[in-house]
Design a protein that fits this description.
Layout lengths: L1 H7 L5 H18 L2 H4 L2 E6 L5 E6 L2 H10 L5 H12 L24
Antiparallel strand pairs: 1-2
Helix pairs in contact: 1-2, 4-5
Length: 109
């Protein structure tokens, strides 16, 4: 969850992103949001090789988290999550919009 928040708020320092997530988590909890309730603590390996407990969630919970953070990066992340979760057709299955097609020129006919 910290990594997702870091991307959303464009924060490259882990400690600051973790602090932002802690504050956001507290606010969401006070609002009764299910985002915090649906987070689980999992031990994951860090860059130093040690295992630390960190908040983790499923795709739906992450999607809700992304919706709760005002960020210009939210829309691309939500779209990516939708593709990954299978709620939207894969790009090669998308139908071409008729207005995107250029009419054939008379010279080409």
């Amino acid at each position: 969850m910290v990594d997702i928040v870091a991307v959303l708020v464009d924060q490259h320092e882990h400690k600051k992103a973790k602090s932002y997530w802690s504050t956001l988590k507290q606010r969401l909890q006070e609002e009764g949001s299910e985002v915090v309730t649906n987070c689980d603590q999992l031990k994951m390996q860090a860059t130093d090789g040690k295992f630390y407990s960190t908040d983790a969630a499923d795709t739906e919970t992450i999607f809700r988290l992304v919706q709760s953070v005002p960020s210009p990066k939210a829309e691309p992340i939500k779209l990516w999550l939708s593709f990954q979760h299978g709620k939207l057709p894969k790009p090669n299955k998308l139908k071409v919009c008729p207005i995107m097609l250029k009419p054939a020129s008379k010279a080409a006919q």
